[in-house]
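INSTRUCTION: Work out how this chain folds

Token vocabulary: learned, describes local backbone geometry

RECORD BEGINS BELOW THIS LINE
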Amino acid sequence: MRVPAAEAEVAAARLLERFPGGLEERAADGRTELAVFTDADGEAEVRSAFPDVSVERVERGWEDRWKEFHRPVSAGGLWIGPPWVEPPASEPSVVVDPGRAFGTGAHPTTRACIELLARLDRGSLLDAGCGSGVVAVAAARLGFAPVSAVDVDEVAVEIARETAYANGVEVNAFRADVLLDELPFADVLVANIELAIVERLLERVASSIAVTSGYLQSETPAERGWTRIDRVELDGWAADVFRAK
């Protein structure tokens, strides 16, 4: 259905009452197009509320089409990919299910962090703002131990635990605000968040090494108390390694 842009929010709310699973929204010729995916009964329900609609048939398997966008990548000598792709037997792997928490392994900042971790001496590690747990699990796969992972989002913590379990590695994941709560000491801190939070986090941790990312290659965290010793740039993004002074 197409509605004037000013009416889109109200129309979307009415649709979501009937289809809480979600809808698709896009601009179309100066108006807003709203779409839901449903069956014949759902089509009749839409028409009862919105008579002026158009219908297009979709091919079978449309609900899994999003999987085509999640391809395996390599970083730090690890294969990282979704569970519906078979990892190669010759390469250590990290399997991560794209879902409710940020972090599939494919984003340049994630890959850059893992590349830098592969270059470091192994030790204990804290992943601050862990999302899906992909970096923490990759670190465990690379030989870091013990590995802790924290996030302010309870769902992310749950997903990080599931990711660790699925990969057969030990990661102590728990909820914490990286800027407010007491954090466990670790030899290596990883923070793939955003520049402002990275800078504030660096001021309150006691790690000897910090791997940071989440910002563009034109940006660099303030280095108070730290010396930058390595950097990786990928697709316009950057990740850095800092050593405490």
Notes: Residues 154-167 form the longest helix (14 residues).
